Amino acid sequence: MRKASPTIALFPEASFGAALNCVGIAQALRARGARPVFICHAGFSGVFADYGFQEYQLPTDDPLSESERQSYWQAFVRRHLPHFRLSPIDQLETYVAPTWEAIVDTAANAEAPLRQLLARLKPDTVVLDNVIMFPALAAAGCPWVRVVSCAETELPDAEVPPYLSGLAADDPGRAAFEARYLAAVAPAHDRFNRLRADAGLAPLPKGLFLEASPDLNLLLTPTVVRRERAEPLDPARFTYLEGCVRSEGPFEVPVFPRNGGPLVYVSFGSLGAMDVGLIERMLAVFDRLPARFIVNVGGLRDSYRAVPDNVYLDAWFPQPSVVAKSDLFIHHGGNNSFCEALRFGVPSLIMPYCWDGHDNAQRAEETGVGNHIGRDGWTEGVLEKAILGLLADNEMRARLKENAAQMALKPGTDVAAEAILSLIRT
Amino acid sequence: MQAAARRPRTNHLDLAQRILDVARQRGFEAGAHLPEQQIASLCNVSRTPVRAALRLLTEKGVVRWEAASGYRLAIDLATQATMVADLPSAEEDELAEKILRDRSARRLDQTVTVGALMRRYDAERKTVLKSLKKLTDENLLDRAPGQSWLFRRTPDDPEAQGESYEFRLLLEPAAILAPGFRLDGSRAAALRQGMEALLALPDAAFDIREFQRLDIEFHSMIADGSANRFVTGALSDHLRLRRLPGTYAGVNVFRLKQSLREHLTILDHLESRQFEVAADLLRVHLRLSRNQRPQAASRGAPALFGMISRPD
């Protein structure tokens, strides 16, 4: 027998992909009578409340002032925009390693307040959607669930390409990438293992920052892009989800001064929207194509001038509702975006710039659900050909629509909610 | 240009609107007689434009013509506040809407010239000038030296939206608290009905445009009810900016429905003349409505609020 209204604490990392994916799961939990609440990092409070969920913000010892945050991001963007144009292997030292250092900092800073919060909150289950372990979860006295909301590559296997590599599984460069990855992240990894030891947790093997949950692990990997593993995951502990798409309000397609042709949605996430130069170059190509383009430019709308008549810019869109009405989705390969494209049967044109975007770009092409082009080095002709090619590929579209109908029969949010609630007994 | 020729003139549209306002204020019910002479004197105009405006309202089904008795109100104005928005728009109004839409999408620069607008919209000079005058009258545009006009800053970026909420937090509760606040009862009743109808819709069918209309109407009703004319004027000017495209983009349905429920609670207290409680609830409502979403986020990085300047 299950407790009537169990408290499920969802703890997504401070990124929109994880946050909104957890909103989808929380909506399904709420529909089943549970009490989903959010534990969030400073800066994300308000995001979940707007969907009607209680939030508990993790206090930080060293909150940044508004101007310090501005400075941080100015420096972040200045430093990393050039790195986003490098190959995955060349990003290891420039972007991946510093990011792991920052993630370890996040885990270290969160540990004490998280322990206190969980002791007070006494959740029935904690759902962690992150790429690193927080030792406080293991000590919370309740089951914890791991959500793998990155690409499936996050869970290593001999038949699965290395995480963040953008390689095919049998790529001859695999060993070289793995060696360089382990070397690049070693300092962060050593530091993290010391943090774990201090908290009484066993060290993790090299390159790993998060273990599988002993109770339940949810993978946002729809069947159509799933990989055959040398060692299949234990179905008792690992549940695949056909995406995890939240419910959003309706989206009304705006009227364009040049109002004809298929609809293309472009979003590179909040970080990708910082690359104004790239988006400007793309707008010049869009201007001459017989299609309408909806482009997410984050808070940088004022950076654009003379936007073409078949383009509409805005700071934020109810993405699932927009994707549902689109004929093509150009994105960065974030797993949430990729799953949304699949869920609505829309081809993906992936232009990755970091992290698992590289892996999803490779996988989209391998499985025939889209195409990818590099972030840098493309010509106007290459982009035009890629867009028009996907828009004209009726065979791919039919296959994707059929697949989407199958995915709709088994919504990932529902499967996730049922699996989470199955952990709870009175 | 034939279609343009059939469009009603702005002054007839304005007058049609005024006739409806007068009818509503005087509590005219469906079927009420609308004598041309009485309407003309109530609106301070002659009978000729009144006849044209009544014909316009007849075409929209708001008013009906009876050979024996003349014009009669065909609908219940207390419950059908939407139809004013359904009136056909004049050519210059349509152009003004297009100009706003294209500015919002950054298809137009902050500075525009008459010549460029004529070419872009294939419009006559006088139509462009009328549209620019309309936008200037609505405080959306300023005349700049030469033949150019300058768009004013609108709350369509996070910083400006924040400032807009701060401004409204200062003035909207004050509008209620200034001694002599008067609630327009029939306007409140129509609003309540509209908000309850919208709340009853399932999320997937939620009409964001209707929310925008009701939201502006609710806050405008509070501004108009203030006994302080300067507060009314400042708020009315500012609330007009919320009509602009994109103002309501990105707010999810859960929050919009929550917002409607907050409106209804405030309305309860206004109707029972508990003005201090209503002002406090309004303050809370505005604070909750302010968008808290960070502008950028990334693994391991602190979430960013407000604007970031264009990267190099």
Describe this structure in words.
The complex is a heterodimer of chains A (426) and B (312). By secondary structure, chain A is of the alpha/beta class. Chain A contains 13 helices and 13 strands. In chain A, helix 3 (91-121) packs parallel to helix 5 and helix 7 (276-286) crosses helix 11. The longest helix of chain A is centred in the first third of the chain and has 31 residues, at 91-121. With 312 residues, chain B is mostly helical. Chain B has three domains: 8-86, Arc Repressor Mutant, subunit A, CATH 1.10.10; 91-151, Arc Repressor Mutant, subunit A (Orthogonal Bundle); 158-289, GntR ligand-binding domain-like (Four Helix Bundle (Hemerythrin (Met), subunit A)), CATH 1.20.120.530. Helix content of chain B is 56%, strand content 6%. Chain B has helices at 2-6, 10-25, 36-42, 47-59, 91-104, 114-121, 125-137, 158-177, 185-199, 208-225, 229-240, 253-271, 275-289; strands at 63-66, 70-73, 111-113, 141-143, 148-151. A three-stranded antiparallel beta sheet of chain B has the order 3-5-4. In chain B, a hairpin with a 4-residue loop joins strand 4 and strand 5 (148-151). Chain B is globular. Chain B starts with a helix and ends in a 23-residue tail after the last helix. The chains are: A alpha/beta (426), B mainly alpha (312). At the A-B interface, helix 2, helix 3 and strand 10 of A face helix 5 and helix 12 of B.
